[in-house]
Structures are given as structure tokens and as C-alpha cells.
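Morning F.,

Quick status update on the modeling queue. The single chain you submitted on Monday has been processed. Sequence for confirmation:
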Amino acid sequence: MTLVLRSVRLLDGPDAPVDVVVEDDTIASIVPAGEATATVEDHVFDLEGRWVTPGYVDHHTHFTMWAKHLARLDVSAAREPEDAAEAIRVALASEHVVDDSAFVARGFQDALWTREPTGEMLDAAAAAAGQEGRAIVVVSHDLHTVWVNEAAAQRFHAPRTGIVREDGAFAVEQAVDREAAEGEDDLIAAALSAASARGVTRLTDLEMADNPGVWAGRFRRGLDTMRIVANIYPEHLPLSVARGERTGAVVPDTGGMVTVGALKLFADGALNSGTALCHDPYLDGGFGYAVYGEGELEQVMADAHAQGFAIALHAIGDLAVARALDAFEASGARGTIEHAQLVANADLARFAALGVGASVHPEHLLDDRDVTDRLWAGRTERAFPYRALTEAGATLTFGSDAPVAPLDPWFAISAAVHRTRDARDAWEPGNAVDPMTALRASWAVPALAVGGQADLAVLDADPRTADMPTLRGMYVSLTVAAGKVTHRAW
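C-alpha cells below.
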């Protein structure tokens, strides 16, 4: 298939408009506007001087959970647990129940609450709505905590404590999603379409599943509109090795669109849950949570490296980041540190020196600014340190961590540049980056070039000069992934 994009302007090229010709999955030519020839069989789009850029990448998603979260009650505005419980009561009272499925809500941040959420609060909400005994699960904003009632604790074999954190929370979330598998393909299709409408042409999936196998099945069922990097977890590593997989390998039956990603590991917990591992104590005197004991992480990484896998290592607190860098150095592994929300000054240059990428999620700095001010008081100048990392030579890549933040590259780009999304002053503006740095951290390729892959997005405004509202809500007119139109705004 041939696409001809007439009269577009390259962000990194001359200001004069050009025509871009796409043949199958390749950019065949870039010529001055009006010079590209076309036949009646070709698909021709006159784009009237709009801006064309490489397609956008979300380097960190939990895609199935994101697709399902789009239809779940959002309680992120709750100022106390009683507010969240009341929102759940209202939703339950208006819901027509046709089965015994669990009711799932999302988005709470108990680090900002002054009272402890309890399972009894959710039991009372269910009873008041006429659904006594209904299992209720509320997934936290950062995914590292769940809030469950008695029925949910019994159903999903969780502690009857109301609040469950880290591995226990992950187990509940996975069990909930297994139950909600009916109609999943429709949700995935809708989520893929929504991502394409934001210019996304590739995403990395860190769902806690056998992602290469999952996406191979989806492509066979026609869910094939985006390039996928399918990461794996330790529990799936033996299966991947048995299939002969390694990082970068093409997954069969996907037309080259799905590749095997990195092995996802955890070094610590999360900020909102108070489990991110830090040099300095939290308000309660704790330092956070270390997933591995001394020497264990290095060995796991060395073994994976020997089997051909890169590492995507979750590390949020500054002590976790330091230990993560130590583990990369000791193991010889390559890959990324995911999140890097708090970094000691002495560790900034180690990213570049070790060839370790910083895979970061800028929208989190806005979601978490109040929590950061409270839990990391006195060290916020080192939090979400994007400019400091860039100036130290680190390679930044942006993602959403959806469903923690919406799967929208423009939210990440704007957050990194403006460090605010509303009338509040920019938060720690000394760590803001310039627009081109933010864009390159979100692009599939450094620039559009003849002979390159045909992944591109057409924008209505120049993102280099856009103000915060324009950049955050960037209008995407056209998205092309692997040479196929996946979004068209008219």
C-alpha cells in the first residue's frame, strides 16, 4: 500500500513543506511539496502544512489492566477513605448486577489520607447499596496496594486487613483480571484505538502475564494495529527460554510487529505505599522495602543476561536506584531502571557510565507532587530529576505506567517540560527539560528518514513552541503505524 502525505513540515528539517511517500512499512521518499506523484490507487492526504514527527512510544504500560481500568470507577479525588467508600456506594446502588463479579474501583492515594481505610468501610458501602456480601477491590493509584472488603479477601485469598501491599496486592490484581477476561478483546481494541489517536505507534507491555504468548494470540485475532515490545517476568522466564526467546527476538505469527522485551524485576516498592527504598527515613521511621537480599539481585540479573535478556529494573527510591546501578555493574547486564523517581546526586553520572537507560514516567511527578512534598520533604530537588539525568548523559525514555497514569505521550511530554498541568506553579522547575528532549524521549526513532520504518504522527501544532494546555492536549490529525493508517481525525 502506498500513502502520500502532501504538504507536511518536518520538525527537524527545513521549514518548507514536503511530501512524504510511504511504501508498505518504509518511508520511500521525502520531496518538496507538490513533487510526489500518485496514482488513483494510492491513498493521498493533503495535510495543509501540519507538522509530521516520528510515531510515539509508550515505554512502560500494563496494557490489559489499562484497558480494563478505562471502565472502572475512579476514586482518585477522594480526600479520605470515607469519600471513596461513598463513591463506591453510589456506583453500586446504580449498578444492575447480573452476576457475582467483584466490583473494582481504582486510583486511591492513602498516603494523603489522615484515616486508615478498612474493609468494614467497604462492607458497609455494599450493604447500604443493597449488595451485602459483594466482593469489592479498590486498586491504588500506584498499583502497589489494594483495599479489599471481607468478601474480596475470602474470594482472592488475601489477608483480612483491609489494606494489602506489594506482592499480596499484585496477586489480588491478577486474580481480579483473570475473572474479568470475558469481553477482553473488545476492551483491548478500544484501548489500542485510543492510543493510536494520541499518535502512539509502539508500546512496551509490562502486564504480569506471558506477554509474548498473549500478544501472539491477539495478533492472530486481528488486534494488530501497533508494534509491541512484550516484556516478561521471572515466573515466565523458563517458558520464554524453552521457546528460544531472548530480548529483541521476533514473536512468530505477528508479522514482525511483536518482539520480546526485557525481563522485568523489582528492586523496591512505591512512593505512595511508603515502600520505595530510600537512604533517609519516612515519617514513620521506615526506609522502604527491598525485594532482594544482599547479592540476590546481581545473581538474577547475571543469569538473565547469560540467557540473552536485557533487564527492566523497577527502582523508585534513591537507595533502590543506587543498588540497581550496583547490580547492573556487578552482573554485566544491560537495560533500564524503571521510574528512578529519587536519585542521589552521586548516582546521576552512573547511568551513562554503565549504559543504563532511565525509563521514566513524567505524569507521576504531577500525580505525586503532594505525596512527594510530604513523604520526601527536604529532598524534592532530587525527585523526578529529568534535567539532572539528561545533563549527566543519561538516555531518557518516557512512558505512562498506565493505568497509573493515562496512556497519553502528550501528558508525559508536557509534564516533563512544564512540570505543572493546572494553575499551580511549576513543581521543582529546575528539573524541567526542553521540548526536543521530551519529544525524543517519546519517539519511536530519532528522526524520519528515507528508508526508515513508516511510523509517524501528524500534529496540528508545533510542539516545540506550544504552551502547556496545547502541548498536553496536542491534536493528532493522523497516525501511521507500520505503513498503515491507524488513526484519522476527519
